[in-house]
Each structure stands twice: as structure tokens, then as C-alpha cells.
């Protein structure tokens, strides 16, 4: 739910802040708040004037909270040891029960509908059977994402739900002040494709490199920047890149102060994922004013609708040289130097929508059939 303030009289910031503090302050437990993840850092930093935000810890469970806002619970399923994963999941569900017994409500932001690595399918199915009945409200980053969540978990339809976009990253990274291409050893006249982000199997980076090797343009360059999730992921990309000197690999963690340089050097950002629901990497590219090529999967059509076809291009099927060549020509077309940022992607909008949704969830009655199993 979005609060419509168009018909309200204007008030000063100080009066508005006083009015907020006069109401009961929301006590929000957030999991996780990761200083290395600019999404959660931006979301909760924007809320501190209007709510008491506490990063999750075991000790935090001794205190009562109105809302436990959970992101990426499927990360527990990426633990390789199945026994350890099961123990952590059982503990996590128990902690949710503890919060709910004290009157707290559980809000889940649906970043993904499954664990990316698919390590424990049976455990994953069991986890969602136990987790979904414990959820009191659901936030989706897109209309498509919410529809897919309803299709997979039908009992979510009975809960309060909100569509709140993934915010931009323009305030989180400094622009590159140097000659980015020179510092990366890339010729100034090159046509540069960038993949940026953690290198994982589902992101299909080895297939991107393989497709790029068939791009005929000798001035084309492929830059892959990001730390591999596993040694096997890194080795696969290096093997594919070895025959083509036009491929440049930076397979390590990219420090925040260096991120801007990679995007400044790029003409086009390509995200060749095998499966995807939402993409922070796509928002990062648009925040750096770079056009992005994404698969026609998940909520990428919502992203294109919001930003327009001159900034977001989609492809169907497997990534190949023809798609890359066509996308490079598309990226070279004239467009504004600054990618327009829709209002729904601004953090002030996102903060207001999220706080309003917390209050909606707190005011909602739990369906009687949703007692946690």
C-alpha cells in the first residue's frame, strides 16, 4: 500500500518528524543487515528516523519486536553440509516462532523463490512448507514476482502484500574520476561488454564467454568482474576465456571504490542468467547509466516497462554471438547521459511504502488456518 499525500496540506520537515515521533515507534528486527550489501544498508538507513531498527542477532530475540523483516531465507539452503543446513533451518524456524509468540509479525521480502544452488531439493521443499505458514505479510519487488510467488505458494494470497521496488544504487558508489579504460588496460575505441557480480553457476558466465568468442568484431571486449562462488565456477570461466585475448577477467572481490570504474569502462552490461526473479546487478548497471541486456525471465519485463526499451533489452533462449552483436549495436544508439530513475525506485519512496506496509501487517488479522506447523 502506498500512502497518497497529494491531498494533504504541506508541513515542514520538523513538524512531520514531530508527528511521526508522537505515534508509537515501530520496533523492527531486520535479517540480514549486511554492510557489504547496499540494498539492505540503503533500506534500513532510510528508516532510522521513523522506526527502531535492530540488526538480527541471537541476543536480539530476548527483546520484543513488532516486525521481523526477513530477506533471503533461502540462503540457509546454500550451506553444503545437509545436516548443518537442516539444523540451521530448524533453529531459524524456532526463532520465528519465538518472535510470533511475543506478538511480532513476520514480513518476507521475496527476492527469490528458490535457492540458487539447488543443493538440497527435499530439504528445500520441507523448509518452504514450514516457513510459508509463519509469514504474516509479503513484499514483492515486482508485479511479476508477486504473481509467481502466489503461483508457487498459494497460501500467500490470504496475506497482506505490497509491491515495493528494488532501490537504486546511485548514493552507494562514487563515480569513477579516472580514465577507466586506461586503468583497466582496455583500448579507448573498444566496444566493451561487462558482466559484473559474483560468478555462480546459475549466472551462466561461462556460456557468455563462450558466446562472445564467436563475436566477429575485433574491437569488441568482454570484461568479467566478480569473485567466483566456488573454485569450479572460476575454473570454468577461465577455461572458456583462455582462447580469446579479447576476454579480460577480474575474478576477485571488487572493492566499492573500484566498482564505478568497471561500469564507466562498459558500453553494455550483460546478465546471462539461467534463471532469475529479480536482479540487483541490473539496477546497479542502470544506476551507473549503462544499458543492460537481460534474459526474458522473472521480473525483467517489469524492469523494461519501468525504465524503457532504450535502457533494458531482453532476449529469449540461450545467449549467443548474434544476440551480443545486436545488443552492442543497440547500446551504441543515442540515449540520455543520465538514465531517468522512476519515483518508485527512489529510497524515500521505498522507505515510506515499507513503513506503511509494516503498519498494515500489524493491523491485519491472522487467518485462523495459518497456525505454524
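^ Assign residues to that structure.
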Amino acid at each position: 500500500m502506498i500512502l497518497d499525500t497529494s491531498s494533504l496540506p504541506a508541513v515542514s520537515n520538523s513538524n512531520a518528524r514531530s508527528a511521526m515521533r508522537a505515534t508509537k515507534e515501530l520496533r523492527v528486527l531486520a535479517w540480514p543487515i549486511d554492510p557489504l550489501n547496499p540494498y539492505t544498508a540503503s533500506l534500513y538507513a532510510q528508516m532510522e528516523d521513523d522506526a527502531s531498527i535492530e540488526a538480527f542477532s541471537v541476543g536480539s530475540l530476548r527483546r520484543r519486536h513488532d516486525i521481523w523483516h526477513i530477506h533471503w531465507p533461502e540462503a540457509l539452503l546454500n550451506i553444503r553440509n545437509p545436516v548443518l543446513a537442516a539444523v540451521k533451518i530448524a533453529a531459524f524456524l524456532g526463532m520465528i516462532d519465538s518472535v510470533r509468540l511475543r506478538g511480532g509479525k513476520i514480513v518476507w521480502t521475496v527476492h527469490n523463490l528458490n535457492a540458487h544452488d539447488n543443493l538440497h531439493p527435499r530439504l528445500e521443499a520441507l523448509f518452504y512448507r514450514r516457513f510459508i505458514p509463519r509469514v504474516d505479510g509479503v513484499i514483492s519487488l515486482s508485479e511479476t514476482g508477486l504473481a509467481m510467488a502466489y503461483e508457487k505458494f498459494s497460501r500467500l494470497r490470504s496475506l497482506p502484500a505490497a509491491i515495493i521496488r528494488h532501490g537504486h544504487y546511485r548514493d552507494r558508489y562514487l563515480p569513477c574520476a579516472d580514465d577507466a579504460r586506461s586503468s583497466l588496460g582496455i583500448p579507448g575505441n573498444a566496444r566493451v561488454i561487462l558482466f559484473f557480480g559474483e560468478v555462480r553457476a546459475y549466472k551462466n558466465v561461462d556460456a557468455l564467454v563462450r558466446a562472445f568468442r564467436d563475436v566477429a568484431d575485433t574491437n569488441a571486449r568482454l570484461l568479467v568482474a566478480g569473485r567466483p562462488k566456488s573454485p569450479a565456477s572460476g575454473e570454468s570461466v577461465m577455461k572458456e576465456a583462455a582462447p580469446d585475448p579479447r576476454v579480460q577477467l577480474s575474478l576477485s572481490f571488487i572493492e566499492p571504490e573500484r566498482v564505478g570504474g568497471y561500469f564507466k569502462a562498459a558500453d553494455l552490461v550483460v546478465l546471462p542468467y539461467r534463471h532469475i526473479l529479480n536482479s540487483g546487478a541490473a539496477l546497479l548497471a542502470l544506476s551507473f547509466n549503462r544499458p543492460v541486456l537481460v534474459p526474458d525471465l522473472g521480473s525483467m519485463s517489469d524492469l523494461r516497462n519501468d525504465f524503457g526499451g532504450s535502457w533494458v533489452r531482453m532476449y529469449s533462449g540461450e545467449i549467443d554471438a548474434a544476440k551480443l552483436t545486436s545488443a552492442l549495436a543497440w547500446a551504441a544508439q543515442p540515449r540520455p547521459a543520465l538514465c531517468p530513475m522512476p519515483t518508485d525506485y527512489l529510497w524515500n519512496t521505498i522507505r515510506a511504502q515499507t513503513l506503511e506496509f509494516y503498519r498494515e501487517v500489524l493491523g491485519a488479522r491472522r487467518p485462523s488456518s495459518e497456525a505454524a506447523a
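The chain has two domains: 13-168+344-370, 180-340.
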